[in-house]
Sequence to fold (417 residues):
Amino acid sequence: MIVQLTVNGEDRHAEVAGWESLLWVLREQLGLTGTKGACEQGECGSCSVILDGEVVCSCLVMAADADGADVTTVEGLGTPEDLHPVQEAFVAEGAVQCGYCTPGLVVAAAHLLETNRRPEPDQIREALSGNLCRCTGYGAVLRAIEAAREAM
Amino acid sequence: MEYVRPKALGEALDALAAFDDPTPLAGGTDLMVEVNLNHRRPDVVVSLRSLDELRRWDDTWIGAGVTFARLEGADDPALAQLARTVGSPQIRAAATLGGNLGTASPAADSLPFLAAADAHVVLKSTAGERRLRWDEFFVGPKQTVRRPDELIVGVELPSRPERQAFAKVGVRQAMVISMVSCCVLRDPSGPTRVALGSVGPTVLRATDAEEVASQAARLTDTDLDEFQRRVSAEVRPITDHRSTAEYRRHAAGVVARRALERCLR
Fold:
């Protein structure tokens, strides 16, 4: 079947059997490899995208069920020349070690700051509780999001 | 794979009746794990995404399509508390109460609340409606009496006391499947209900423990000790990759007592 999506503001379509995940469509069909796949069980958050206004694990969205949806991936937040404030802050704070969890963290953080302009530290931690970093880099991540909050 | 996305409840029931072994899809947070791990490849998926009828929610009714993200804002303290412990924000944005009921994991976080509240599960099909009390609906680990042509449309909640508490034990705060979960509902004059998850093949009520807690408006330390002892005696845990039966039995008594103490404050 053909799945029609709006991805980062552009109309896109993909041919799928149906049961594949949105993550697979984004990476393998649409070439948007910023969104990462790791656990494929919804535990790690590295595949986080914004789907119709909510942050979800794209590995747990059936591609067929995303037909007609609006998707924002990490590629849609900013450009290399014009970074999103969260991306800017991650760079400035050095909030990256191996970098694999970073796109998911950036998407979750950007969505948090769009829906809650003044999140408290506890709310930031809660919003990131579904994004695992196994290099244990959360300290710099939290500082980056607080810096982005001030910049936005 | 055949994929259908009905626009209305009646259409969904027709679809469930028309196909052999259809798979209903709500948030996908259980189904897609199985699909991704190649444990399951559904032939027919009936998507519930467009069914606004399933998202209705008021004091006596929770539609099957209500997400845990919405339930975080519940007026029932125990319901809000349990919703906050489900998965992560990403999971709660997608996962629904109906999915929790349909998957029927013994560890499902919503079930202790529904069992303590004596909720009824409402199933619909083209053949009609069935209204089943929680203990008629769940029959074993990941087993319910739902027929393939039936859809879980929601749960009916009888009136329940305002003093409520939910607690669970796991290895960390977020993204954790409980080793023991517990909900206590208590009327200030005494009557108390306690339900526990992850400590038996299905969610269960500790009725002997309820008896000792229900006897008085004021409970002594001796009563609480006896309550805790009875909860530990009544649960039926097993040892698996998440915990041991021995630990679960002990922890069940401890968390149930803490939840009751919170209701007494």
